């Protein structure tokens, strides 16, 4: 069982990252689900800001079969978005743990982008949009299929990943980006060489944001639970621009559509789940996912706790040490080369 927390009923009246005097003495999972009836039909997306998030401890999430190779992967331009779907022999990917009641099965993943790198994401972070946003959709196994789950609060779960620009291409998203030229027209699709889905994004057991909200498509309302990773995925500018070539049903560039309007978050609960520190100062973390540990950029490769007040000072110190070591290695190599040359001439 997870820890019991004392959380404010009204997050607007609570001090940042602290509980208020009016508390709910429920286990944390029960607290999350107690908000479904009142907040699941509030509109999404919202602005994500760590300063207004209430910290909460939940059981870790468990990721099952995300590293299992699917038998097929299909990429589709619907005219509204790009959807990635897949099939497996046997059991497909699923999530359990955290605030989830039962097992949630992978359904599909889709992307959101804009005309520029400044208006791509659906959610805003501290009031600003990011270049690209990935939604990974799951539905509760107990409903049998996504269509039945859509009508019930918590029947559908949306994992959110933000992408930020880097100078180096992301090799993990490359198979998707390279296939976009085959689906420029709406209602077109193509098959990809199968790869493990976890290559496209990353698992997280904690350090994520959680809230209730719904999306609307005409008369259809889909109340769902949202989990947003604090760790960003990278991509370079050339990869981002490939999404801009896709056409909608009116044969216009998809980026001509305006991003969704961000809904007011006043009076709604935004949870910061299993934070590493009680004093997080940035909404998103700068550290890249672990899968990039062998291919990190210099700016990302320093082991710095970015939530620490001394983060910038430690970062500068580590960069200086790194450059000094590199300079020393170059000097040593030049000396060794000079000695070798002198010896051969003698």
TrEMBL record:
Organism phylogeny: Eukaryota, Metazoa, Ecdysozoa, Arthropoda, Hexapoda
Signal peptide range: none
Organism field: Anopheles farauti
Name of this chain's protein: Alpha-carbonic anhydrase domain-containing protein
GO cellular component, one term: cytoplasm
Superkingdom as given in the UniProt entry: Eukaryota
InterPro entries xrefs: CA_dom, CA_dom_sf, Carbonic_anhydrase_a-class
SUPFAM superfamilies: Carbonic anhydrase
UniProt family annotation: Belongs to the alpha-carbonic anhydrase family.
Sequence ranges assigned to domain Alpha-carbonic anhydrase in this UniProt record: 16-274
UniProt-recorded Gene Ontology molecular function terms: carbonate dehydratase activity; zinc ion binding
Disordered: region residues: 1-21
